[in-house]
Amino acid sequence: MRAEPQSFDRVLSSMCTEPHPAAREAAERFLATNPGDPGTYQTAAALEDRAVAMLGEIVGLEIDTADAIGAADEDGSGGPTGYVTSGGTEANVQAVRIARERAARGTDRPSVVVPESAHFSFRKAADLLQVDLEVVPTASDHRVDLDAVRAAVDEDTAAVVGVAGSTEYGRVDPIPELGEIATSVDALLHVDAAWGGFALPFTDREWHFGHAAVDTMAIDPHKMGQAAVPAGGLLVRSADLLDELAVDTPYLESTSQATLTGTRSGAGVASAVAAMEELWPDGYRDQYVRSQHNAEWLADQLESRGYDVVEPVLPLVAASIPTWLFESLRAEGWRLSRTGDDERVRFVCMPHVTREMLESFLADLDRLESRAARAVPSPGE
Ligand SMILES: Cc1ncc(COP(=O)(O)O)c(C=O)c1O
What we know:
Blueprint: H1 21-29, H2 42-58, E1 81-85, H3 88-103, E2 111-115, H4 121-129, E3 132-136, H5 146-152, E4 157-163, H6 175-184, E5 188-192, E6 216-218, E7 232-236, H7 239-243, E8 247-248, E9 256-257, H8 266-279, H9 282-304, E10 309-310, E11 316-319, H10 323-331, E12 337-338, E13 345-348, H11 355-375
Helix pairs in contact: 1-8, 2-8, 3-4
């Protein structure tokens, strides 16, 4: 049987999207390469340097490609760098690992402070790396409660995590303030911009290395960056942080490796470069504006129908929709998911989500609502 991938026609829940045509073509071209063995697969390795440099430009880090993994500056720290991960999960796990390794020199009980809005990949990281996860609440605006972070940090804190584009509500934590708190206890600040990183440059929010004392960051080309899966990104302010992860690689042509996976696809790397060369900055800006307008339009439409809506800061709307309607819409083929507390349906306005698609969704919602209203006998019937 020759299976075909599903279309994106009714997908409203995914943080990924259809790759840009140039990204798809590059992914196919580099399918059989392995940047995990950079001495042998030199073109893929050079492309990875290019990907990291371009990601650096997006997040306010000037990356000299000569600073690729392992290269040290005169002071021994090395310049900013990073690598193309398999996704946000790997970037977050590796960031926690960097922080744990660095903190291990001062504590035997390293902890990581994360907002309750943080992606579940931090739970995996804590489990794998045996660090304590200190989960702090968010305030009513769904951003981390800074007083709770201040109360949670201490000398065992290895890292403080801020989210720049949260998975459930698309919110951006106060990153500069989190940087100050992390610095006060000599912890690292990791920013998870896995989803938001390609939209935030076009907002006036403070979220990146140029705005705050950020040490490490996740930013995924395979989400809003319109690259093919797998293409995540881990960036670090100085190469010595990445060195915390390096192991010797005796049988390869290169001598050490800081990535979590060994062999990994050059498809993601090549497609990340192709997408960014095609879209940064104007294409991403246009897309962000379109997606944000769609999200705001959808929020208004849902509100006018009487649903309780969390306004979109980034292109993600959350709305309270009753379970029977959520399930009926799913049965109609709409791919929808809910927030962790099951209270709200999330609508992620990714590039494949057009106004026509949202109109068609609302038409289905209205039809199901009126059918249900007709089925309920009015009083006295
Ligand atoms: C904010 C955030 N971080 C991390 C991840 C995990 O990324 P991945 O699924 O690519 O591993 C996601 C996934 O949606 C996310 O939204």
